[in-house]
Write a structure and sequence with these properties.
Length: 293
């Protein structure tokens, strides 16, 4: 996984094809609604007047927010044109220069991650304050970690539902520790479904951006979300989709699955699926799970 594209897995990539480019926030579509309060951190697609709002924490991490072509394609391919679909900036997509000039520290990565979580919370609050809106949150790959931290910090009831695709509650220690040092682990499976964690990085890797993206991943992945979410009595608003051959994040463990089941979450295993396929299967359920007609 020397190339961060292995981890920058957004729904558009999984379903068909993706064209990523730098965004210009000034070309955000306008509607009779005013999104002025969050225009600095969000872009809007689909039905700008829609009462169902899907707020997306994208995968990666990468330095670019999904562009208009990719985001519009997601809306079209998922058949959610009747909903308002919102892409939310993470720190690295809003301020990429912070991550290209020099190495950040692990502690800095943690702080940047919490800023990205705050961005999602701000957008959720914005729509919660508008009458008649039903607010859902979608987390994909790295975005799953952001959504899990959102729930752990602010509670599950800040949104009407959550769809989490392609990550873990408790990332293996060996994996997040490698990421914290700017190295990328991947999971190699035997015929019985057991895995070992290997590193794909050149020890002489001089790609500053790549190392920093790994640290951003580790800045949330070090958390034990079975602990952080334990005080929440019910996770019935959460649907969690994972593959048992996920080469990027690894599969949910029996303990993680049991935790989610005990909390009333809807846990969906995509048998034999790697990272891409599990996300693709889960994305195909979005319309049904969020009740979008």
């Amino acid at each position: 996984m020397k190339n961060t594209n292995r981890l920058n897995l957004i729904i558009c990539t999984i379903l068909f094809t993706s064209f990523l480019s730098c965004n210009n926030d000034d070309d955000t579509p306008k509607s009779s609604n005013t999104f002025d309060e969050v225009l600095d951190i969000a872009k809007f697609y689909g039905n700008l007047e829609g009462d169902i709002v899907v707020i997306h924490a994208q995968g990666g991490p990468g330095l670019e927010l999904d562009d208009d072509e990719a985001s519009n394609q997601i809306v079209t391919e998922l058949g959610i044109q009747s909903a308002l679909y919102v892409m939310v900036h993470q720190v690295q997509t809003k301020n990429p220069m912070l991550f290209t000039g020099s190495d950040i520290t692990f502690e800095q990565a943690k702080e940047y991650d919490l800023q990205s979580v705050s961005n999602i919370k701000r957008v959720v609050d914005f729509f919660n304050n508008q009458q008649g809106k039903t607010v859902y949150v979608l987390g994909v790959s790295y975005g799953c970690l952001i959504v899990q931290e959102l729930i752990a910090t602010y509670g599950v009831d800040i949104a009407d539902g959550y769809l989490i695709l392609g990550n873990r509650l408790n990332v293996d220690d060996a994996a997040w520790q490698a990421l914290s040092e700017g190295e990328f682990p991947y999971h190699v499976y035997d015929n019985d479904g057991n895995y070992t964690i290997e590193l794909d990085n050149d020890p002489n890797n001089d790609n500053i951006e790549e190392r920093n993206m790994g640290k951003l991943l580790a800045g949330l992945a070090f958390n034990r979300y079975t602990d952080k979410l334990n005080s929440i009595s019910s996770l019935s608003k959460v649907t969690y989709v994972y593959g048992d051959r996920d080469e990027v994040a690894g599969p949910l463990s029996k303990q993680e699955v049991q935790f989610l089941n005990d909390k009333g979450a809807n846990v969906i295993l995509v048998e034999g699926a790697g990272h891409d396929d599990a996300i693709g299967e889960g994305a195909g359920l979005l319309k049904e799970i969020f009740g979008i007609e």
